């Protein structure tokens, strides 16, 4: 038996990176998966490879969310799980960042998550219960130079998660957040950011001295999506190799 047998999941930002890892693991665990992304070519390729259902999806657009939910309900008649994974990172110091760049990061990361929660309420109420997993970051707990917009969005996702958990418990909808640390993905290894980081010192500061594989995050997401996490809501789960434990003196 799979951890997610019989469940229907919608995963945003699923065409590559951690999102694609979530898609693959959810399928392995028995879920029926619909995933969205603005990256049409990559999304269609992953759908062909895995058999998951791809929908072109802009998480900043209410109409696009409506279309994605319609696709899920038309294909499977229910929605058990939403993984708000879509996100972008723009490495730019505050003095150099334009208001438009700041707005774009918050639109995708924060508004996109909020719209996802809002859009999932009706189909999950119709289904009878549900689990929403919001992907935040360790930058939802600590700041980092050059990541003011990203950190602002990820801190805010914690607040949305907790408010939603309180609002939606009466409908048997659980809402939790996951906070990855150093994950081996294209976004996490942003060239502009890595150029300003002493990579050797960064790894030495880690408790577990390596970058994580995306699937190591996916296993936590799958647990929260499953009935094994039935008493977890409004909670924050770090997958950071111990980075937030303290300073590496």
Describe this structure as you would to a colleague.
There is one protein chain. The chain is an alpha/beta fold and about 250 residues long. It has a single domain (about 10-240), classed as Rossmann fold. Helices cover about 45% and strands about 15% of the residues. It has 8 helices and 7 strands. A 7-stranded parallel beta sheet has the order 3-2-1-4-5-6-7, with helices on both faces. Helix 4 (about 100-125) links the parallel strand 4 (about 80-85) and strand 5 (about 130-135). Helix 1 (about 15-30) crosses helix 8 (about 215-225), helix 3 packs parallel to helix 4 (about 100-125) and helix 4 packs parallel to helix 5. The longest helix has 29 residues, at about 100-125. The radius of gyration is 17 Å and the shape is globular. The model has no long low-confidence stretch (mean pLDDT about 95).
Instruction: Please bin the fraction of helical residues.
Output: 40-55%
SSE run: EHEHEHEHEHEHHHE
Strand order of the largest sheet: 3-2-1-4-5-6-7
Q: What is the general shape?
A: globular
CATH superfamily: NAD(P)-binding Rossmann-like Domain
What fold name stands as the CATH topology? Rossmann fold
Task: List how many beta strands DSSP finds.
Answer: 7
Q: What is the number of independent domains? A: 1
Q: Mean pLDDT score, rounded?
A: 94
Q: Round the Cα radius of gyration to an integer and report it.
A: 17 Å
Secondary-structure arrangement, i.e. CATH architecture: 3-Layer(aba) Sandwich
What share of the residues does DSSP label as strand, in percent? 5-15%
Our measurement of the CA-to-CA distance between the termini, rounded to an integer number of angstroms, reads: 45 Å
CATH class call: Alpha Beta
What's the main sheet like?
A: 7 strands, parallel
Helix tally equals 8
